[in-house]
Amino acid sequence: xxxxxxxxxxxxxxxxxxxxxxxxxxxxxxxxxxxxxxxxxxxxxxxxxxxxxxxxxxxxxxxxxxxxxxxxxxxxxxxxxxxxxxxxxxxxxxxxxxxxxxxxxxxxxxxxxxxxxxxxxxxxxxxxxxxxxxxxxxxxxxxxxxxxxxxxxxxxxxxxxxxxxxxxxxxxxxxxxxxxxxxxxxxxxxxxxxxxxxxxxxxxxxxxxxxxxxxxxxxxxxxxxxxxxxxxxxxxxxxxxxxxxxxxxxxxxxxxxxxxxxxxxxxxxxxxxxxxxxxxxxxxxxxxxxxxxxxxxxxxx
Length: 301
Fold this sequence. Notes:
two-stranded parallel sheet, two-stranded antiparallel sheet
């Protein structure tokens, strides 16, 4: 091209009579073509007799392949989506496809490019999508790029300001004011054998306040916590003689002064309105394990 000999390659310049100088010039052009192509293209034109013959062979070999490349790039442009990638990565992937199409002589119109970009955005950009589609004045892709980046920054900043605080719950069982010490041991707590003195020496039974006896947050039984609950940790059951199980009623009143934002109950009858919970959240207990949440509801106190 620097010597204005491209016409000999394309055939627009008539071939002069066969002379030594003309043959030498055609050979220079052929070598220039051969050196500027890759190994695959060099094989295609290696047996060409002239620069025009080499150019013709290249066109026949790659014209169909170019059409396939164009179709592939346009299909990828029409089906590209943002997904889980950032807005900058999504726009760069679109820009790459547009540049590839422009290099092979098929530039993409700005309107088609904007439509393809909007179609690939997710539901979080629904408001932005609608505002661009009802816009009367034309918009270039560069302007759309800047507006999308600004809108994505706004969404991230707004999400940080509206993060929901974690829920706290309180589960309280109320029992009678005092219980006999001999009744608070059950088969689940494996008390060691006790010496029973004769009736004349038997001390007066001591009574304990219910506030001194812990209640398990997992199985609702008294005398232990969730950290040592065998139902939660799978401790083996040991036989025990002369054991008495004390069944304590659960209070039906709510303790509204516990300081918790939410309350927990295992009795559906305590709720005025309840619905099945479809989320994946769990209630964390003292030992760090989670209890499944089955229903959400409300009641009037």
